[in-house]
Amino acid sequence: EINEGDWSSDVCSSDLAGQPAHPENAPVLVAWATQTGMAQTLAKNTAAMLQACGQAAQAAPLALLDADALRRAARLLIVASTYGDGEPPDEAVAFEKQHMRQHPPLHGLRYAVLALGDSSYDNFCQFGQAIDGWLASSGGQRLFACIKADSADDFEMNAALAAWRKQLAAAFGLDAAQLARWQPKQPSEASGWHNEEIGRAS
User: Fold this and answer.
1) What is the pLDDT of residues 91-101, one digit of tens each?
2) Does position 117 have pLDDT exceeding 70, yes or no?
3) Tens of pLDDT along 31-52?
4) pLDDT beyond 60 at 175
């Protein structure tokens, strides 16, 4: 079960402090930065999909994480939207200011980013790509290249999500066909997974 409530500033700063930096059985951390809710839905669906396929995973808002939490994560997935003209979504503004303007040592962290955006804007998926570059420049190792998803185009969005699943299967040694077949249990959780929610910001 994904328990978002487990991720608070107290958890990030204290409960993780006594844990080894990269426990072998640590769950994959799936973080989101969203404006309208699509990135959150996709992140939670990603975590649930991984769990259903035998890979422990936990979803949390990027805004609740800090450099220490990222440093202690063995594997990190981020689903991040871009708002307006290449800006972070409102909930991630503080994270960008407090953490992304520095370069904490994140050596050993393996990560991947699903960047959401609208291709009708010049700075398409800019915030997601900025996170990807920041993690790499801080010593993180990409599991695979940043995947850009166009919320303004159904075909492109679905293609990006299919690529996301395929790359996750390869990165974590999971059954690609099983990941491809996975569907959210609740219809209300499917928005975004099949691009039912399209708008200016994701």
Assistant:
1) 999 999 999 99
2) yes
3) 999 998 999 999 999 999 999 9
4) yes
CA distance 39 to 103: 25
Classify the phi-psi angles of 67: left when phi > 0, otherwise alpha if psi is within -120 to 50, otherwise beta. alpha
- Within 10 A of 131 (CB to CB), how many other CB atoms are there? 24
| Residue whose pair of structure tokens reads 């994959």 in the numeric block | 28
- For the chain, the distance separating the N- and C-terminal CA atoms, rounded to the nearest angstrom, is 25
